[in-house]
Amino acid sequence: MLDLWRSRTLNEKMMWGLILVLIIGIATRWRYVWGEIASAFGGYFE
Fold it and tell me: What does DSSP assign to residue 27?
């Protein structure tokens, strides 16, 4: 499995990484996640 990954070009690796980030982002709803993080940090910096 690792050899299969190593044989990929950089462009292919970046494409798979982008797909993975998009899937995770859609699944977790970035706005909700970042809103929670922003409100948590906002409490520290007030």
Answer: H
Count of structural domains within the chain: 1
Please state the pTM of the whole predicted model: 0.51
Closest to 16 in 3D by CA, of 29, 28, 5: 5
**23 residue type, one letter:** I
pLDDT in tens, the chain (46 residues): 788 888 989 999 999 999 998 888 777 777 777 788 788 888 777 5
* Nearest to 29, CA basis, from 7, 39, 37, 14: 37
Count of positions (residues) in the chain: 46
Give me the domain span that covers residue 16. Answer: 2-45
